[in-house]
Amino acid sequence: MRHLVIDTASEALSIALFSDGTLVGHVHEIAGRGHAEKLIPAVATLPDGGLADEIWVDSGPGSFTGIRVGLAAARALAFAWGSALNSYSSLTLLAAMARADGADGKTLSIALTGGHGELFWQEFDRAALTPLAPAASLPIGQLAEHAMSPVLYGTGAEALVCARGSGEARLLYPDARMALLIPHDQMQPGADARYGRGADATLPPAKAAAAVPTPSESD
């Protein structure tokens, strides 16, 4: 069984290919911008052009553009290859990464850079990796008044620590290589976006379909 993981919901462009649970190829770079131009070529560099039985994609929250790019590519690849398609939350992946990083305590506090001066925020039970409350998008100043965890994880952790004047920030970008750490019950069938707040634009058609490498093209 092969799994292709696509994660473009943050500044990172991260993809990974697993074969029976073993990592066989990956690309992980802090791209910032340009995910739309880089994603499909990156997939093509993986063994067999990334061909997989199942595709996992980060459906957000995070960058609206990055989420749309990842979902469009995942849908197009799943259609072209006849692959199963599932999605996960960027915040859940970061929580799994934080736990693997040796996070202490009963609660994992995740802050991810959002738009318009806001952060996406969610806390998880460390043992079960289940969310303690729905994800929220809040202004940094407002969140600083309520987020009291001594250690924060994610791309927005440093900004939040600076805003409240205390605590420890541990920078983590969503990394596709760590996706197997996500509990199975946290996966969702299909690929519906989790923007975390009202989207500025609607999801465009999967124009990437024409650029998707078929198995014969990737040989």
Low-confidence stretches: 198-211, 214-219
**Beta strand count:** 11
Report the biggest beta sheet as strand number plus sense, adding barrel if it closes.
6 strands, mixed
Mean pLDDT level: 90
Shape type = globular
Structural class: alpha/beta
Q: Report the C-alpha radius of gyration, rounded.
A: 17 Å
Query: Given the structure, what is the number of helices?
Result: 5
Helix coverage percent: 10-25%
Widest sheet: strand order?
3-2-1-4-5-11
| Separation, N- and C-terminal Cα atoms | 19 Å
Give me the strand/helix succession: EEEHEHEHEEEHEHEE
Strand content: 25-35%
The quaternary state of the protein chains shown equals single chain
List its salient traits:
24% helix; disordered C terminus; 5 helices; 219 residues; six-stranded mixed beta sheet; alpha/beta; single chain; three-stranded antiparallel beta sheet
Task: Draw up the topology in text.
Elements: E1 2-7, E2 12-19, E3 22-30, H1 35-44, E4 54-58, H2 64-81, E5 84-88, H3 90-100, E6 107-113, E7 118-125, E8 136-139, H4 140-144, E9 151-153, H5 157-164, E10 168-170, E11 188-189
Parallel strand pairs: 1-4, 4-5, 9-10
Antiparallel strand pairs: 1-2, 2-3, 5-11, 6-7, 7-8
Helix pairs in contact: 1-2
